[in-house]
AAA family ATPase
Amino acid sequence: MSAYAPRSERKPLYVKVVTQPALPGCWAVNISETGIGLIATPRGPQEGPREGESVELSFSLPDSNEHIRARGDVRWRHESGGAVTALGVFFHSFEGSDGVKLARYLTTARLQVVVVFASEEEARDIRAALEGQAVPHFAASAEEAHALLARGDAAALLVCGQEEARALTLVEGLATASTDVELSGAVPPSDLASRIIYCAPAAPERLVALFNAGLVFRALGESPSREAVRQAVLQAGRERGVRTEQWRMTLELERNLLRERALSQARPTEPGGRGEEEVGLRSAAMQRVMEMVRQVAPHRVAVLLQGETGTGKEVLARIVHRLSGRGELPLVVQDCGALTETLLESELFGHVKGAFTNAVADHPGLFVLANGGTIFLDEIENTTPNLQAKLLRVLETGDVRPVGGTQVRHVDVRVLAASNKDLGEEVRAGRFRSDLFYRLNSFTIDIPPLRERPEDVPELARYFLHVFNRVLRRSASGMSQDVEDMLRSYPWPGNVRELRNVLERAVLLSRPGEVVSRRLLPPSLVTVSPARNELAGDGSLRARLERVERELIREALERHGGVLRRAAVALGMDPVTLGRRARRHGLWKSD
């Protein structure tokens, strides 16, 4: 748990989750910004991800079109002895902006209530009773009620109307459905089911039986007061959340006790290797960078990461966050060059309803969503002086005021910034505020480009080869030695990002089991790298230039199918001159 802020609050959520490795019958139990609780019905303890392993997750958020894709680590897995398996998964990355979508959902989500069989008058009273407290969803039939409950986020079900038989049939039918869920591998219905608040007529003995069976949470009688409805719904939400959390903690405690017992009887295991994020950091230059990262991470100072595009600034930002003591709290990433000033200000600081056109609801902003955690501002050199002044105020005071708002909210956020340019030069050129620069410049880490650490290239290339084999479902079986030499000698103007793209292309084009060869590399890389190799070799300047010329002519002829005239146009040469030089190099013979 972080020393800076409480653990991210969990909220009950019962939705279907698709995992990879596959885990049959997988549902969410609760969710927070940092992790998710799952239940499933695997055929055995070896099916699906095990404790300590990575898992890919995909699920939809109720009452929205948002779909979340995330990767995480299984922190604990517990086999209950029956059909049910419970897992706790800690998120470590999201696809695109899905992490922000989830955080925004959790921040803005309100208590959800399903109301069934309500008359127009009852519906009007319920809307008034729950205004500002919960969101009611109305159903005219039992089928509609079942569909709304299947969303997975309804804390309560209000059963209304004047037809006793219809109301009781629905309640008893829900009990049967919950029992089926329990037998199929879900958690006990008393923990996950929406709390039933009964507002319809019923004989006293029938109500007593329903209470004794644990099917009814509150019975308010016909035409209850608005205050009674409001209090019952709020109590249902609190009780459901508490019971679900108690169930989760019971499983986790039981699992920890079993694990401690097993560890006391087992030999100590070897420590694990490095995480995926630290691949390609073995060179002396990157080891110096990592030493600086380890020194600064635990301390609450702003960090400025400077380096060319594609050098891995976001990767280092994630490592700083993980080592900072805030690792279990949000890391929010924003590219400052991707939005206009107005949109970026709204995205960072939030806005209130009506602040501008299309501002149809309050938006909390990324600083609020990152409260307790870390915010990473990439390409900060693209911000305007006006926005830089507002960033400086947040850095110095921690106070955030949304666009169009008057209320100020205090946040505790660790700020990491990155720039593709030398911010000191930007200050001297008058394009960046000096006061913000000196505030961000508390601790600057310069990241060397990939061409200055060629020893990292083969490790990165093999890692990307493994990743894209899995993602693209290919089976490329390594790289030839000349390809490794070519990759090591190439200047990599796009750095790690360019290397990643080259390996993705190679794996995609590879045949089953094929070794990555020159054939699978982009022509631009094949053209440049040999030239560098030849220039780096022994021999006179004349000999080296001859070898470079031969390679360029060979590549041009290959690209244009051996047609001399086309190759000459591509090289900007006279065809006669090119023919003479090609014959000298043994690359072309006239008819």
Remarks:
- Residues 92 and 322 are 9 Å apart (CA to CA).
